Amino acid sequence: MFLTKSISSFGHYCLFIQRVFSKPDKWKIFFSRTIFEITKLGVDSIPLVMIISIFIGAVIAIQMQLNISSPLIPAYSVGLATRDIVLLEFSNSILCLILAGKVGSNIASEIGTMRVTEQIDALEIMGINSSNFLVLPKIVGFVFFMPVLVAFCIATSLFGGFAVALFTDIITVSKYTYGLQALFQEWYVWYGLIKSLFFAFVIASVSSYFGYYVRGGALEVGKASTNAVVTSSIMILLLDVILTKLLLQ
């Protein structure tokens, strides 16, 4: 029963995406709405990303130093490990799990409210492809701005570790900065950016899908928002395993 329902929902989602990625009726309106969504979904998320990243970077540096106490392991390993953890996982996978809660719930509740208040029905009566008009700018805007959020996350996370080295005696600044530069692999940066684009698409499209097909009232909008966050998180973790296998093998 669960498997059948899941397959049916996935097929329904694919048909929804097909409608979303049709040619916009008016490109000028599409671009103006995309810029608006970039501001609402992307730019407004920067403060949250920076605050969380600073503390996570600091915690990673502290925990790495506390667990690497062997004299056989060089002290700069703290900076190296902090950098690789941030580049490989936190700046893309964990960040997108956090954004699924903020951005995903926002999208699902917004579109769900439009559905229950019959605004989407009004667009359909006017002959407008409502899924394309409402959803495509959200997907394009969020995917387009996601690399910027990843860049902010990387920078502020590494700064959080630097702050630990600067204001405590856990590790010296010189050893931490040397560790950040040691054995650097440029592909790790591209790897994180590629994963984040897939995750951003999942967050925006899945949340829009749950919001678009809400039936009922305010209670159902809340349930759709919750389902959107849960499903997006599961899909992100599943994609994380697949992309890691494909990109790092």
Radius of gyration equals: 21 Å
Mean pLDDT: 86
* Dominant shape: elongated
What percentage of amino acids are in beta strands?
A: under 5%
Notable traits:
249 residues; mainly alpha; single chain
Write the topology of this structure:
Layout: H1 2-20, H2 27-42, H3 46-67, H4 77-116, H5 119-125, H6 130-167, H7 173-181, H8 186-212, H9 218-247
Helix pairs in contact: 2-6, 3-4, 3-6, 4-6, 4-7, 4-8, 4-9, 6-7, 6-8, 8-9
What does this structure look like?
This protein has 249 residues and is mainly α. The chain has helices at 2-20, 27-42, 46-67, 77-116, 119-125, 130-167, 173-181, 186-212, 218-247. α4 runs antiparallel to α9 (218-247) and α6 packs across α7. The protein is elongated.
Summarize the model shown.
This protein is mostly helical. The chain has nine helices and no strands.
